Amino acid sequence: MEKTTTIISQGDVERQLWYCEQVAAVTAQWPERPLAFVDTYGCQQNEADSERIRGYLKKMGFGFTDDEERARIIVINTCAIREHAEQRVLGNVGALVHVKRRHPEQLICLCGCMMQEPHVAEKIRQSYRHVDLVFGPHALWKFPEMIYTLLTQRGRIFSNADEAGSIAEGIPVVRQDKVKAWVSIMYGCNNFCSYCIVPYVRGRERSRRPEDILQEVEELAREGYKDITLLGQNVNSYGKDLEEPMDFADLLERVNAIPGEFLIRFMTSHPKDATHKLFETMARCEKVAPVLHLPFQAGNDRVLKVMNRRHTREQYLEKIRDLKSLIPDIVLTSDIIVGFPGETTEEFEDTLKVLEEVRFDALFTFIFSPRVGTPAANMDDPMPREEKLANFNRLTALQDAISEEKHRAYVGRTVRCLLDGLSDDERYDLTARTPGNRLVRVVGGRSALGQFRDVKITDANKWSLFGELIE
């Protein structure tokens, strides 16, 4: 893999904006304003990438729709983390062949992490002939040029070369939310956990300049955004590659100093790089939300070593103790893989012991899914699927009980929450988030959407809290 990060020049970005104008000139000749459908799978980084794709599309003269039949351009931003996500994407892409038969002028574009996998891109080339454009995360910055080429020359374009990755500033953004915003502070990953495809499809770690990040957050604060999440595959590695290195804790403190009423969140953190300095900074900075997503993946040291996680169970637990001593009300979440190749049920018991000691507020749990191109995909995996599923069910049952107990402790309390959306449950008017990012379904106060307000918690279950707005 290429290791040298490509910094896209301002001139190159401006050229892409010029291509936006050229596409807009073409679309202006069409009978009605064209619409684009952008569908996103996977993580928040993919969501942030899709916001830049929408920004380009808007500059190109497109409006937006959720109806594939009405879309002149369909963009599917894919995720490669788990096999289930890949199969969903391929199933949905296959179904689009019928849509394109009805609308042969339609452009179908696939992007994101799946498209950076050579075997997937080749499958699209051979078996999904209705797809016009395939590009990986590294080529997103030149999306307008590729669309202009398709509109003026047709044919098919595949832009998924193996690259270290790039940083491009100045790409327009159309955000989906008016209350919450994602801000990418870095891209890529250097950790090479043995089960993970991310370093191969996202490239090596590369940090944005702090002044560019701070300017983006300042603009969001001025625009009234109340919940700003700093994104990176491993935010704790931020700044190591800058000409004047700075660490993530220093960046966090500078973001905290920006004027405005907003919460700062961040993800994802790696235990090996989560430091006492970071925890102290979190405790000291009043805008930093008291929540940390810190994946530990497995509770057994042998399994962690084979995973190439570069931390031990005790090192992880010591960090949690340190964090809790500084922020007693910290909300903790984590990721766990069940059934990693070679894991025994006895070793899995160590994972349950970590849950019992830490008592996470919530977990993201997965049965191991082999990814082509990673070392774990070639490891012996003798445990039957049924045994993995039984262990998975034990894990989720334990965490469900812990989550419900923790949520029940909120009942009767008044919590200052951000009212962030309309509820899809007709019994409640709004959704809200506690500072620790717990979901609250709220009665009353639709006019308060987008505000921080006091909510009295009246009930709870293992998934969420329920409350009423205090007028």
Q: What does this protein structure show overall?
A:
- The protein is built from 13 helices and 21 strands.
- It has 471 residues and is α/β, with parallel strands linked by helices.
- The chain has a six-stranded parallel sheet, sandwiched between helices. It has a five-stranded mixed barrel with strand order 17-18-19-21-20. The protein has a three-stranded parallel sheet with strand order 9-12-13, with helices on both faces.
- The mean pLDDT is 95.
Secondary structure: elements and pairs:
Layout: E1 6-7, H1 10-27, E2 35-40, H2 44-59, E3 63-64, E4 73-78, H3 83-102, E5 107-112, H4 118-127, E6 133-135, H5 143-153, E7 157-159, E8 166-167, E9 180-184, E10 186-187, H6 198-202, E11 206-207, H7 210-222, E12 227-231, H8 248-256, E13 263-267, H9 276-284, E14 291-293, H10 301-306, H11 313-326, E15 331-338, H12 345-358, E16 362-367, H13 385-408, E17 414-422, E18 430-433, E19 439-443, E20 452-460, E21 465-469
Parallel strand pairs: 1-8, 2-3, 2-4, 4-5, 5-6, 6-7, 9-12, 12-13, 14-15, 15-16, 19-21
Antiparallel strand pairs: 10-11, 17-18, 17-20, 18-19, 20-21
Helix pairs in contact: 1-5, 8-9, 9-11, 12-13
Strand order across the largest sheet: 3-2-4-5-6-7
Please give the largest β-sheet: 6 strands, parallel
Low-confidence stretches: none
State mean pLDDT (0 to 100 scale). 95
Strand content: 15-25%
Radius of gyration: 23 Å
- Helical coverage, percent range: 25-40%
Shape category: globular
- Strands, total number: 21
